[in-house]
Design a protein that fits this description.
358 residues; Cytochrome Bc1 Complex, Chain D, domain 2; 16 helices
Length: 358
């Protein structure tokens, strides 16, 4: 009898000790795998490192989740439209339509912006009018916009929570955090920061891996010449591989404005008619051009700056020849400038399987 009681007491204390031991043992929570951006050589040699928010570091799991969300119509109210519907990989992540249609068949008044090299957007103002200050915040708006996905974030979060795959994918990317709209947009932003384009013919020329044709070389000269193209003030030069200054300009499209652009954001009439300078990369794939997609071809764009400038109270001082209608390029200079601009296009970017539908 005594032996039985002793055995019982020993077992009791073993269970208690084991329980205490389990309570004090830290639970291992797998952490996301860091994934550094692959910085192209032409970027590393000429511009600062990309800016990555401290609260949204790049990870393998975050990028994978962001890519899945980018291509998934689950974000739209009727499950028909994804981010990629208006930002197509084959078009340098823009849309060939002048104005993309939302799920209700309603069109906006602006052309969708192409998406690449966003990690180097130093001033952190996004959209044509700069109304959003970070890539993470940019992704919030299309979901609820009534002429885009026309959804609510409450509906989106509910769908993701009830989905067969997303809860585990979110937990892998953002361990032990509930699914929120902030985590959705952080993941999408991580994927978008991987959309790096730096393998055009001109990039290869800068690296000594290709030669420009005489036409392309003269086109570069036109681009850099203040008396001919005078393009470099807003769109950079060979030492600025972004090919944009990421600043807002009134580039002489209209004498009066139906869309005030930056002016509607700041409330300052001096900003009316100003829009972000887009990058000149990948123009071979990203037509139509300008904030409202008014130009269907690159020839029309060149003609605008050559002889189509419109004066207005907020015209940018860089449009120095507005009173003559433009820089008045010769037909040969126009053709050569076009050849140079097309040399900034990167076929490997639009064909990269890492950027295509999963």
């Amino acid at each position: 009898m005594l032996t039985g009681k002793l055995t019982y007491l020993c077992l009791f204390f073993v269970v208690i000790l084991q329980s205490c031991s389990d309570e004090n043992t830290p639970v291992y929570i797998p952490q996301p795998t860091p994934q550094a951006l692959e910085i192209p050589q032409v970027f590393a040699e000429n511009i600062l490192a990309p800016i990555i928010p401290a609260n949204n570091p790049q990870t393998v799991e975050g990028v994978s989740l962001g890519k899945k969300l980018f291509f998934d119509p689950i974000l739209s109210a009727n499950n028909t439209q994804a981010c990629a519907s208006c930002h197509k990989p084959e078009n340098a992540f823009t849309d060939i339509a002048q104005f993309s249609q939302g799920i209700d068949g309603i069109s906006g008044i602006r052309n969708s912006m192409p998406l690449f090299n966003l990690a180097w957007n130093y001033d952190q103002n996004f959209f044509w009018d700069g109304r959003v200050f970070s890539l993470e915040h940019q992704a919030l708006e299309p979901v609820t916009n009534p002429i885009e996905m026309h959804n609510t974030w409450e509906t989106v979060i509910s769908r993701l929570q009830e989905h067969a795959e997303y809860p585990s994918l979110f937990n892998a990317a953002f361990p032990q955090q509930p699914i929120t709209k902030e985590l959705v947009t952080r993941a999408i932003a991580q994927f978008e920061r991987t959309l790096i384009s730096a393998n055009s013919k001109f990039d290869k020329y800068l690296l000594g891996q290709a030669e420009l044709t005489p036409q392309e070389q003269n086109g570069l000269n036109v681009f850099m010449d203040e008396e001919r193209g005078d393009c470099f003030h807003c769109h950079g030069n060979p030492n600025n591989p972004l090919w944009t200054d990421n600043i807002f300009h009134n580039n002489g499209l209209d004498a009066t404005f139906s869309d005030n652009g930056l002016g509607d954001v700041t409330g300052d009439p001096a900003d009316n008619g100003k829009f972000r300078s887009p990058s000149l990369r990948n123009l071979a794939y990203s037509a139509p051009y300008m904030h409202d997609g008014r130009f269907a071809t690159l020839d029309e764009v060149i003609n605008h700056y050559s002889e189509g400038l419109q004066n207005s109270p907020t015209i940018d001082p860089l449009m120095k020849k507005v009173n003559q209608g433009g820089v008045q390029l010769s037909p040969q200079d126009k053709a050569d400038l076009k050849a140079f601009l097309l040399a900034l296009s990167d076929p490997s970017f639009i064909n990269n399987p890492a950027f295509s539908i999963p």
